[in-house]
């Protein structure tokens, strides 16, 4: 059995998860949704296959909101921890059922994986 590629958790630790594959893309996004959602400049996102993301703890803490003011016009779902407010991942309509746009900064040692040694994020806005 393959060991997890990544372990992740929200700020308060209520929600934890593993991802058992590498992201198909890593990007840094500075759009209005990402900067407001992060309370900062933007977010670093790892595009992960939904089937490879396993929630370990905190299913009952995961809340969802739907954003309709998207560039495509199709709704985007945002999932977050109801205790600490950390965004966990978003699901744009175009990838629903296939990918989760996981907040890379929730993954342990994300900066080692995505900034220092592997690949630089593609920048978008
Ligand atoms: Zn939390
Ligand atoms: Zn964005």
Automatic annotation (TrEMBL):
One matching Pfam family: GFA
InterPro entries, alphabetized: CENP-V/GFA, Mss4-like_sf
Domain CENP-V/GFA: 6-125
Keyword Metal-binding found: yes
Keywords of the record: Lyase, Metal-binding, Zinc
Keyword Cell membrane: no
Transmembrane segments: none
Family assignment from sequence similarity: Belongs to the Gfa family.
Protein name: CENP-V/GFA domain-containing protein
